[in-house]
């Protein structure tokens, strides 16, 4: 099922006439969506359609309820123009961010405003119908809470770790038990379309549409949480590769004599750096009596998880900072390779570890200073995401709108 606006079903005519009409409507809705508001004259200029045609189409779209008359705007010489905007409540987009241990569900209006968000902690990602059944229940609970029916949902965007065939809506690594593919499976149960993609790519898309990658052309977006993901923006476009598997940065070989990775290979970058490894190393040291804020935390009966480790780092825990520094050395060396290959203008660190801010950016920069070719790396800025835990959710919203409006 392709995501489409409700009004698209109401457009009648022969196949060709209908297709032409829908394209004309889409041009207008797309322009207004991307600009917030627009006048007839602006739409005429952008769409290269005639003034009377645009005026008639805008009238139709107001009739459908997707556009609103936003009143009189500023004059740029002559009569002050009428402005039109998207009706934010015409339909809504659901964003689902599936992680190994947490699940986030959000509801956005058509002004990209987050109107509801639920976070489910300790929600272990398991390859079973129970997980998807619970997901469907939780999405429906949000609809009930917000007093919405399935018909008010434009589409649901899903972000999931691992290998994903976005074109066909198939997840290979997680929730792979469905015969028809995860998108079709969820869509059947929920009654609206589902657009699926990999988490690092969704974070990159979120950064591109709403975060620090906005307006930039060549950006690498890292998801540093339990594993390592990479979303690549090249020449202003999300780079997917032939099968959509581009960006498996965590599985490049770093240490041929290293540990076995869950992917089956030995010595992958992800066996040396990831939130999971950081937590494992810290737990082992704490068990052996390592002095740390986290030792006290454990003595108080708490479980040392990634959140606790990040919090200890931010609070200046010397041992946890040391462990992050060691890990940043490997991360930096991996990034040097990417910088030399791709010459990015910015590297955005996202995911749970990006909450540590300067504690991860500074050691990474030190490694880049040491190992990267000065002329190439001097123009590459390393920053932490400011969307942080919302990056993937914002990316799923952008992914849905890209599909619906067919924008790049
Ligand atoms: Zn691996």
UniProtKB/TrEMBL annotation:
Entry's transmembrane regions: none
SUPFAM superfamilies according to UniProt: Actin-like ATPase domain, Winged helix' DNA-binding domain
Organism superkingdom: Bacteria
Entries under Pfam families matching the protein: ROK (PF00480)
Family assignment from sequence similarity: Belongs to the ROK (NagC/XylR) family.
PANTHER family associated with the record: BIFUNCTIONAL UDP-N-ACETYLGLUCOSAMINE 2-EPIMERASE_N-ACETYLMANNOSAMINE KINASE (PTHR18964:SF149), ROK (REPRESSOR, ORF, KINASE) FAMILY (PTHR18964)
Protein name: ROK family protein
Species name: Ancylomarina euxinus
